[in-house]
């Protein structure tokens, strides 16, 4: 459960963005397939934006491509 008194529910677009970031981490070897699947399931189960953030906390921000 989120610590915020009124957590903001994530949108479908926000969930898709998290899954894209997880896929990048998988392709870079930062996550195993099992970890990717587990975090993808957790993305769909997330009830707040904070829940989504916790799924990415140990991953670096993606580099911008020029």
Describe this structure in words.
With 66 residues, the chain is mostly helical. The chain contains three helices and no strands. The N and C termini lie far apart (39 Å).
Question: Summarize this, please?
Answer:
The protein has helices at 12-27, 33-45, 49-56. It has 66 residues and is mostly helical. The chain is globular, with a radius of gyration of 12 Å.
| Oligomeric assembly | single chain
The helix/strand series, from N terminus to C terminus, equals HHH
Share in helix: 55-70%
Largest sheet: none
Average pLDDT reading: 90
Strand content: under 5%
CA-based gyration radius: 12 Å
Note poorly predicted spans: none
Q: End-to-end span in angstroms? A: 39 Å
Would you count the extended β strands for me?
0
The secondary-structure class comes to: mainly alpha
Count of individual helical segments = 3
Q: What spatial form do the alpha-carbon principal axes imply? A: globular
């Amino acid at each position: 459960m989120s610590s915020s008194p009124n957590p903001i529910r994530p949108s479908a677009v926000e969930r898709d963005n998290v899954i894209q970031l997880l896929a990048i981490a998988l392709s870079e070897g930062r996550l195993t397939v099992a970890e990717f699947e587990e975090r993808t399931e957790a993305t769909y189960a997330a009830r707040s934006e904070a829940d989504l953030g916790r799924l990415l906390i140990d991953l670096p921000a993606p580099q911008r491509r020029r």
